[in-house]
Design goal:
The structure holds three protein chains of three kinds.
Chain A (H helix, E strand, L loop, with lengths): L18 H23 L5 H18 L1
Helix pairs in contact in A: 1-2
Chain B lengths: L1 H34 L20 H8 L1 H34 L5 H13 L2 H15 L1 E2 L6 E2 L4 H25 L3 H9 L4 H12 L1 H17 L2 H5 L8 H10 L5 H30 L7
Antiparallel strand pairs in B: 1-2
Helix pairs in contact in B: 1-12, 2-12, 3-6, 3-9, 3-11, 4-6, 6-9, 7-8, 9-12, 11-12
Chain C lengths: L1 H31 L2 E2 L10 E2 L3 H7 L2 H31 L7 H13 L2 H12 L5 H10 L9 H30 L3 H8 L4 H30 L2 H6 L12 H9 L5 H29 L11
Antiparallel strand pairs in C: 1-2
Classes of the chains: A mainly alpha, B mainly alpha, C mainly alpha.
């Protein structure tokens, strides 16, 4: 792999990202998931499920994305 | 054959641009026509010729004390903002250009985000801030940024500074650093370098920054309408008030709008070449 | 080391202002957004309600409606401006006498105060004495009334935005087009390509970065538009046909003094804008060729 400036890399996310980008993406995903959850799924599943899912997702994105 | 083609080509280009110019100018001209009509003439069939100029629309507005206040406020706020923005941007851009500052790229990007953020999202936060957080004292001696010139001047910096920094960056970068190195060797301090070397060399760019910041502040409406009540209202809010309060006085409204337009026209004529560089944050040079 | 301190000193006033007036509001609003707080209600205290404000928001039809209007408006306005602007920029490439004058006239709308533009268009379209309804009625027998007809009102705000911002697209693309190297086009012409092929396979790929830059700036600006629409349609009327998100906040949410809920909405508006801004920025920087292997430029 070429070493890009600021340790940019590209794994499963479709773009080159550095650590800051991945944190940013995780937060965006977290907010989006919560909003959609409140609109469509909260009647069946409590909001905490969304929190847990997005934290796991955020970890995956930051660690492996 | 080739010649006829060329003539047709010319004719098409001219035709196109005459139409474009007409589409641009006719709405503005119509506004001036309305501003020259009295209330009685207003509902005549639309035509583009001014038969008699009803000056009273203008004199009424200009002699109105409230409106004079708005006008003066607008001038004070735009001028103070433009000067402040230009001075601060010069300092900031010099720092960003000449010093290796940790995280300066991020500062650059953050300023861009602030320029792009929707003003409507700022309304409530700033209102709360100006009335609740940035307030000193209680009761009658209470002082806050709401409805003050200073509030608007500082606020417009948030939108004008990023643009000014982006615009000036290219200009300051183009001034060879050897010049200020030489001055430093001669014992000058940073203040002298900026005022004696950078300032004269960057003067045209600074003038453009000043003019465009001025016009952006002059044109702003949304914040002026929500963050002021009486003391610091500007001409653009006055224009909107004409519609809501006096409702039907279209002639006076058109007159105010025409007056608001004057600085814009002057800027377009004299700074035309730099407007695009200004609006694209120096990304596109004309 | 010592000199860096001077650098930060020079930068500090800018950073302080941007921080105090640009960032502190949002930290504050992030906090207020979790409370129920209305200064003019009987209970003036702040009550912690968790994410309830956001829960209310995702079911708020008027908010979602305003969001949808904003997106539709941005889409149609920016696409039309790009097409018209490209066409006009092409025609400005050759020299003809009077070009400077036409350019000055064309630039004029860019510097007019948005609120004045709203006023100008209001005067044009007002039923009773505006020329547009008059002409449409007399020539085509169309009943044009933006105070009543929602579709006509929506079309009018798009036309107004085209009138206002097409010059920006034209002049920016013109700057890009005049900076293009002549060789690829000449080579294609020697190879016998017609003008459409030259445009499609030579000019357009070379212009991609600048087109993306224009799109970026235009989309962000169109999403922010408040003043002129507010002035033209008197607060987003008829009904909610032209009520963009900005106008919704300005005319409906702000006067309600429901600070907790309004804070949540402001923050969400900022969220949408940042996400869109970031997506565009990524496509701008990553498509511009940090990778040379996708055949974009050769």
């Amino acid at each position: 792999m070429m070493s890009e400036p600021k340790q940019e890399r590209r794994h499963f996310l479709p773009i080159y990202t550095n650590a800051f980008d991945r944190v940013f993406i995780s937060i965006v995903v977290l907010v989006a998931l919560h909003l959609l959850w409140m609109r469509f799924l909260e009647a069946f599943l409590p909001l905490e499920v969304a929190t847990i899912i997005s934290i796991i997702l955020g970890f995956l994105i930051i660690r492996y994305g | 054959m080739r010649r006829t083609r060329q003539i047709i080509d010319y004719a098409l280009t001219y035709g196109l641009w005459i139409v474009v110019a007409a589409i641009t100018l006719l709405p503005v001209w119509w506004m001036i026509v309305v501003s020259a009509r009295s209330r009685v003439e207003l509902f005549n069939a639309p035509d583009l010729i001014i038969r008699s100029f009803y000056v009273q629309n203008y004199t009424d507005v200009i002699n109105n004390r409230t409106f004079q206040g708005y006008m003066i406020n607008s001038i004070i706020i735009s001028t103070a903002n433009a000067v402040l923005v230009t001075v601060l941007a010069l300092m900031a851009t010099y720092a960003l250009s000449r010093y290796k500052l940790v995280g300066s790229d991020n500062i650059f990007f953050t300023t861009l985000t602030q320029r792009m953020a929707p003003p409507a999202a700022f309304l409530l936060p700033l209102f709360l801030l100006f009335t609740q957080l940035f307030a000193v004292g209680e009761g009658r001696s209470r002082w806050d940024l709401y409805d003050s010139h200073l509030g608007l001047i500082l606020l417009y910096c948030v939108f004008n500074l990023p643009f000014a920094i982006w615009l000036l960056k290219g200009i300051i970068d183009a001034i060879p650093p050897e010049l200020d190195e030489a001055a430093f060797v001669d014992g000058a301090n940073t203040f002298h370098v900026i005022t004696r070397i950078i300032l004269p060399l960057a003067a045209p760019g600074l003038a453009v920054t000043l003019i465009l910041s001025w016009i952006f502040a002059w044109n702003e409406y949304l914040f002026a309408a929500t963050l002021t009540a009486f003391e610091a209202r500007t001409i653009t809010t006055g224009l909107a008030e004409f519609v809501t309060v006096t409702g039907t006085n279209w002639g006076a409204m058109a007159a105010v709008s025409t007056l608001t337009l004057i600085p814009s026209v002057i800027v377009v004529i004299f700074a035309q070449r730099y407007i695009i560089a200004g609006l694209t944050f120096g990304a596109v040079k004309d | 080391m010592r000199r860096n301190r001077v650098g930060w000193l020079l930068l500090s006033p800018t950073l302080i202002i941007l921080f105090l007036v640009g960032i502190v509001p949002f930290i504050y609003v992030l906090y207020v957004g979790f409370f129920e707080w209305n200064l003019f209600s009987s209970d003036r205290a702040m009550n912690f309600v968790g994410v309830n404000n956001y829960r209310r928001l995702v079911f708020d039809e008027r908010f979602l409606d305003a969001l949808w209007v904003t997106i539709r408006f941005t889409f149609f306005a920016v696409i039309s401006q790009l097409v018209i602007g490209f066409f006009l920029a092409q025609s400005l490439l050759k020299n003809f006498p009077g070009k400077v004058l036409f350019r000055i006239v064309h630039t004029l709308p860019l510097m007019i105060a948005p609120i004045s533009i709203g006023a100008i268009w209001r005067l044009l379209t007002i039923p009773g004495f505006g020329p547009i309804p008059f002409l449409l009625q007399n020539w085509f027998n169309i009943d044009y009334n933006i105070g009543r007809n929602a579709d006509q009102a929506f079309l009018t705000i798009i036309l107004m935005d085209i009138w206002h911002w097409t010059p920006f697209v034209t002049l920016t693309l013109l700057a890009g087009l005049s900076a293009l190297p002549a060789e690829p086009r000449e080579a294609a012409m020697v190879d016998g390509a017609n003008s459409w092929q030259i445009f499609r396979y030579v000019t357009l790929p070379l212009m991609r970065p600048i087109i993306l830059t224009v799109l970026f700036i235009r989309i962000m600006d169109a999403l922010r538009t408040v003043d002129e629409i507010n002035m033209l349609s008197n607060g987003g009327g008829p009904g909610t046909a032209t009520r963009t998100l900005g106008i919704h906040i300005f005319r409906v949410v702000f006067p309600q003094t429901d600070y907790g809920y309004g804070s949540a909405m402001s923050l969400l508006t900022l969220y949408f804008t940042i996400v869109i801004c970031w997506l565009l920025f990524v496509s701008l920087t990553q498509l511009r060729g940090s990778r040379g292997n996708d055949g974009g430029e050769r």
